[in-house]
Amino acid sequence: xxxxxxxxxxxxxxxxxxxxxxxxxxxxxxxxxxxxxxxxxxxxxxxxxxxxxxxxxxxxxxxxxxxxxxxxxxxxxxxxxxxxxxxxxxxxxxxxxxxxxxxxxxxxxxxxxxxxxxxxxxxxxxxxxxxxxxxxxxxxxxxxxxxxxxxxxxxxxxxxxxxxxxxxxxxxxxxxxxxxxxxxxxxxxxxxxxxxxxxxxxxxxxxxxxxxxxxxxxxxxxxxxxxxxxxxxxxxxxxxxxxxxxxxxxxxxxxxxxxxxxxxxxxxxxxxxxxxxxxxxxxxxxxxxxxxxxxxxxxxxxxxxxxxxxxxxxxxxxxxxxxxxxxxxxxxxxxxxxxxxxxxxxxxxxxxxxxxxxxxxxxxxxxxxx
Length: 370
Fold this sequence. Notes:
The chain is an alpha+beta fold and 370 residues long.
C-alpha cells in the first residue's frame, strides 16, 4: 500500500526544474517503510491563496495539492532548457498496510514525526546542494498537507465504511492589524515626524519574520532583548540618584580600553543593574527570569556549537524555539511597563488572531457515490 504525502512549502519554496528532463525519484527507507521522493512539480494554485474555496468537494483534489496539467514555463533556463517553477512535493511511503480507522481521532499513518523527518532531510539536502538560503523548512504542523492512500499500482482503494482513504490538513495563521481612524493618525504621526522604530523593536520583528529559521530567530531575539535593556537602563537612570560619572563607570569599567569581559552581562543588566536604577528585578518574576535564561542559553549554544540546545543540552525542535521567540514578547512588555510612555513602542493593541487547523477525511474527495 502507498501513502502519498503532498504539500507546498510556503512562501519561498519555488525552484526551477527542467520541463522535459526526467528526474528519477529518490528511494530510501524509514524503518520498515520504503520512501520514494519525486522531483518537485508545479501546483495548480499557489499558497497562500485565500480566494480559493475552503470546502473539500467530492471528486476533486484541492488545487494546491494538484499538479498543473499544463505547467507555466518560466523565464529561467538551465543550459538553454526551459524550466517551470516547482513548488509541489510528492513523497510516497510504502508498506504492507497503514492504520486508517475512521473512528480514530485525526488518524495519520505514517505519523507526523515520520513525515517531518523525511521532509526535513529532503528540504535540507536541496538547500545544501543549491546553497539556497531562501529555501526554508517549515514544521508540518504549520503547513497545509494531504495524504492519499493508494494501491501499490497507484489506483484508488475500494470504499470501506470503516476506513478512510486519506487525510487533508489546512492550517493558516494570521496576525491581522486593522487600520481604523485612530491608528491611521498614529501612522500619520510617525510619517510626519520621521520617527524611526527602536533598534530592539526592529530586531524582534526581524526575528519573527525569519521563523521557522530557528537559529537566526533565537539569535535576533536575544539581540533584541540585549538592546532593549540597554535602552531601558539609559532611560531609567536619568530619574535615578546615580550620577553620570558613576553610570559611565558601571557601563564601561575600563577607562583606558573598552573591555567587554568587565561590562555587566545581559542577565546582570536585567537583575542587579536594573534594580539599581529602578528598584525592579526580572528575578521577581520566575517565569520571565527562566525564559530569559533559556533564550540566552539556546542562543549561546547555537552560536558556539551550531545546535539549538537548551540549558539541559536537549536539542529543541523548531516549534519549541518558535515558542521561545514568541514568548520573548512577555519580557518586552514587562520592561516597557516601567518605561516612560514616550520611550515605549508605538503599536496597535487591537489585533485579530486567527488560526484554523482542520483534518478532513478525504474519502469524500474520491467517493463520488457520496
